[in-house]
Amino acid sequence: MFLVKLTEFEPLLDSTSYLAQYSNDNADIKFAPGKLFLIVPNRSPRFFATLQLSPRWFSNYSVDHVHSSKVSLESFHDAMLDGGDFSSMSIHLLDKTNQMFLRFDTPSSQIQPSHHELTLSPPQSEDIQICEHELDLDKFVIVKSKSLRRVIKELPIFHNDSIICVSVTTSQIKFSIASKAIVLSEEGQHCKIEGFGEVESQFRINLCPMLFFLNFTYKASKIWFYKTKNNAYTVMMVPAFGIYGQYAIYFPTT
Hints:
By secondary structure, this protein is an alpha+beta fold. It has two domains: 2-130, Roll (DNA Polymerase III, Chain A, domain 2); 133-252, DNA Polymerase III, subunit A, domain 2 (DNA Polymerase III, Chain A, domain 2, Roll).
């Protein structure tokens, strides 16, 4: 069985517009029984930006097995933009086809539904598996958005030198590049640190394109940082869609 329907699709429209700002147009879309994923890879600097939505956000989310495909983010966005005057959107996938059908409806029987057909292609295996990495939920850092905004604005980050070393102890987190470091402390109420010991732990992230990450700091009051259990990725989590969704940015550790 496959039926996905939502009555408030404007937030999804806004999210696709936001992710499309830096993508090369293609995104992987993954419908799983427990969550919908929209996955956009950035090749240089390397990271994966994802939007993850709980079934509870949809008015109907009936997905009995995983469906993964690559779709044009621009076409998906434009279809929703075209259907903006309608009150609901349904997503349909037909077996043995490479098409995704969007149907836009309104309660009025006098207005005919609108349909859009999007061409799908096979997903990239590495991209589509990114969300299968389990998070180490026992260790994390919560940074106030205004404090991370300061880090992004004050560190001289450039495209060719955008790697930031992040050092964490029990009481502070330090963001540093070769020429400058910014320290955020629990005592100063800039962050909250859980599960880290006295021995300094380090990981690396990048915050380029700067405007892309800067905009995240205006989407939520706090931002979470985790490591995956296999230490393959550092993950930056930004709440979205109330309690029903989140942006998750995966930074490879190597």
